[in-house]
Amino acid sequence: MSTVRIGYAPWGETLEEVADAARRAEAAGAKVIWVPELHRSATVTAAAVAAATTTARVGTAIALAFTRSPMVTALEAMDLDELADGRFVLGLGSGVQRLNEDWHHARWGKPVAHLDETVRAIRTFVAECTTGEPIELDGAHEPMRIRGYQRPYAVRRPAIPVYLAAMGPAMTRLAGRVGDGWISHELCSPAYLEKRILPELETGLEQAGRARTELDVVVSACCSVDDDAATARRRVAATVGFYASVRTYAEFFAFHGLAAQQEQVREAFRGGRGADHLADAVDDTMVDCLTLAGDPDAVAGRLAAYEGLADSVKLSPPTHGIDAAQTRAAQDSIIALVATLTGGHA
Q1: Cβ 318 vs Cβ 240: under 8 Å
Q2: Residue 211 domain-assigned?
Q3: Neighbouring C-beta atoms of residue 301, cutoff 10 Å
Q4: 208-223, pLDDT tens digit by residue?
Q5: For the Luciferase-like domain, which residue ranges apply (predicted)?
Q6: How far apart are the C-alpha atoms of 44 and 301, rounded to whole Å?
Q7: In terms of DSSP bridges, do strands 57-60 and 216-225 run parallel, antiparallel, or are they unpaired?
Q8: Of the chain's two ends, which shows fewer C-beta atoms within 10 Å, N or C?
Q9: Would you say the C-alpha torsion 100, 104, 109, 111 has a positive or negative sign?
Q10: pLDDT (tens digit, 9 = 90+) per residue, 138-156?
Q11: Domain range spanning residue 127?
Q12: Structure confidence at residue 2 (pLDDT)
């Protein structure tokens, strides 16, 4: 039996549909329900999911770390943990500079050090906010000086798990040093995890004197399941194209021997195609290497390739370049596969 836990990132055109998908994924056997932050607030969506579920953990994957103050993030995390009866996981990520500064008017600074201080401030506040004692934290990015404050409500847990999203080496080492878990980019092959990510996580763990068992390694996997493998691949091709259009992912694609294929996608992008409409420029080699796409047996086999490398795999349906009906069909097929793999109920 596989030791890799399966999580799921539900999709919906409404919060009601997201909650329903979360409920069905939990019944199918998903151990964690993860919610993103881009088109919705991660914390509000997590609240909807927490109310709709009873056993699965509820996590943000990810909430933006710098667009809220650490105190607000901590308050929201404690409220969510209360709502979820101790099932909440706070997944944080830095985002990119332009998103922080131009979209949110948030400070960027040095993101690794900034995120390190953010995690420290959140954990300190959660642990000490009911004592009435002053909180004094120095820092270049997130100092915290709180006096005359005492939270009058009980804290469900004095330490809420904090997972960090990371792709670059320095941020990945930080996840190993201070995170309760690490969350991958949406595209993360077993080979990339083994050769590029795990060594950096191990370095971070060693720097902090921590054991590998203290870190939950969570791979994010864009998934598409259909009895017709070609249909499954085409659903997810635009997601691959979306990321291939970004020049900063050149090393990632080159690692997989896909530099020429990425350049083909980028040529289409430079020719005027939108980033969500590059599926025709993506060949099956890219899809098979970077996603879990195909018929149920093929997807189960690709999922098994993470055995011994990842602790958890977060499955998500494709959303780029396809309509809602196709995403909905992909979601239903993933939940059915989860039930088959875990013995749950679809």
Answers
A1: no
A2: yes
A3: 12
A4: 999 999 999 999 999 9
A5: 13-309
A6: 35
A7: unpaired
A8: N
A9: negative
A10: 999 999 999 999 999 999 9
A11: 5-222+295-323
A12: 76
Give me 170's structure tokens: 């320095």
Quick check: is 101 in a domain? yes
Q: Is the pTM of this model over 0.70?
A: yes
- Which two three-digit tokens encode residue 313? 């795999």
Q: Is 231 a domain residue?
A: no
Whole-number Å distance between alpha carbons of 332 and 35: 17
**What pLDDT, in 10s, does the model give residues 216-248?**
999 999 999 999 999 999 999 999 999 999 988
Cβ atoms of 339 and 245 within 8 Å: the answer is no
Distances (CA, A) of 64 to 113, 203, 280: 15, 25, 32
3-state helix, strand, coil in the chain (%, to 5): 50, 15, 35
CATH number at residue 318: 3.20.20.30
Position 179, amino acid: G
Hey, which residues does 183 pair with through a beta bridge?
165, 218
DSSP codes, 145-203: EE-S----S--S-SS--EEEE--SHHHHHHHHHH-SEEE--S---HHHIIIIIHHHHHH
Is residue 69 packed enough to be buried (19+ CB in 10 Å), middle (13-18) or exposed (0-12)?
A: middle
Residue with tokens 């990132």: 9
Do the domain assignments include residue 171? Answer: yes
